[in-house]
Every structure is written in structure tokens, then in C-alpha cells.
Amino acid sequence: xxxxxxxxxxxxxxxxxxxxDFDIGVASxxxxxxxxxxxxxxxxxxxxxxxxxGTYGLTNNAAQITASVTDLNQNxxxxxxxxxxxxKKVASVAINASANAQYDxxxxxxxxxxxxxxxxxxxxxxGQIPATPLGFACQMDAGLDKKVVEVKQFQLxxxxxxxxxxxxxxxxxxxxxxxxxWQGNVKLQADSIDLTTYYDLxxxxxxxxxxxxxxxxxxxxxxxxxxxxxxxxxxxxxxxxLPLRNxxxxxxxxxFYLKEIEIADFQWTT
Length: 270
Description:
13-stranded mixed beta sheet
């Protein structure tokens, strides 16, 4: 289907492309996607596979889609991941994902999806980041019915550490019947979150890449204020009308860790 050569930063595409089989037709007032399946490749190396099926109603605009991605690996992902990793290289990674979506303009809409990344291993030439496999998983079960959004499950899971179970849960009920006065609640909960390993992997080396940048930034003289600036600073900002009413947001994290930072019993209610 496609064969692309080019570059992204210091990374080069090498015959990165997709080969797919299609079986799509129209019957009984429906567009029927019986099969859209294929493989993603880089050169001769297979980077993963995908599959899509579904239907779309030509009269009622109702749709149903089922999609999956299997064994998406470093051959397909290293070009996109490595610009975020500095000088580190992706040794291995595997991603599997699936989604089932149903849309009905006159009825209920639902989405169930899952995403799992396993065995993310990077090679760090400085030796600061150990080649320990990391993972990531996300599950979602949400729906929309009569302008009411219901998030029954949204769970985010990272590879656990000695300090954190690294699971985060979100639920929500949002009534959008009145566009200027949404009602409902959102709850975000976690027992213990430790982001140190992921911070070191994606952010850690970037601050050390240019040690003079921070010093240069802090060395700039402060701007001289004027009476007009001081006057405007004393003025109360104009009111902001939020599109919410009878709406509650709760956040609860028992323990949060980032390198040497520890936050205990974080509670926030708005």
C-alpha cells in the first residue's frame, strides 16, 4: 500500500511501508468492511499486523468498528520512539491493542478498548539506564447515551516497582444535557505511583544535555516594571464562567514518588 523513504531527525526510514488486503462492499443499506488486514514492515523485517472490520449504515449513520493491532514491535516503532529517548536506542518492544466502538446517532454510543506495551528495553550508551523491561497497559470502557457520558473503567498500569503498584483508576459521570452547565463527577484514585524509571528513561538525560542552558536562563536580568504594569497587576481579573454546575472532581493518591520526591496522602476535591 505504501513504501516511504525519508528521515525524521537523525533517524532514517528504510522502506517503511504497509501491505494490506481489502474486502469492502455495500449490501442492505450498509457499507460492510468485511476485512482490512495487513502487515507493517521496515525493509524485510515485519513490524506488526492490523485488522479492521465493521459496518456503516447509509440511512441512519450508525456504525460499528472492531480493530486490532498485534505484535507491533521495534522494527515499526524505533523511528518514532527514539527521538523521545535522546541518544538511547530501542532494543525491543511489543504492542498489542484492540478496540470495539459502536455509534448510533439516535441511541447509545459505546467504546471498549485495551492497549498493552510489554518488553520495552533500551540500550543506553552511558550505562545510566539499566536494560530492564518496562511495560504499560490501559483499559477503557466508556459510553454516551442521551448526552450523558459514563466512564465505567479507565485503568492505567505501569510496571510496578518496590515503591509503587503503579495503577491508576478513573471513573466519571458527566451529564451534558445543558451545554453551559455540565453536571456530574470525576474520580481519580491511585494507591502508590512511582514514575522514577519512566522519568529517567524519557526525561532524565535531556536536562544534562545542555548544562549551560539553565545558567544562561537564570542569568538574564529581570525586566524593569512600570507604573502601568503595577496598576494592571493590582486589577482583579475578569470573572470566568465555567460550563459546570453541581460538578465534583476528586483526586486521591496515597503515595507518589519521583526520584527523591515523595508525596503522601494527596487529597484534592473541587
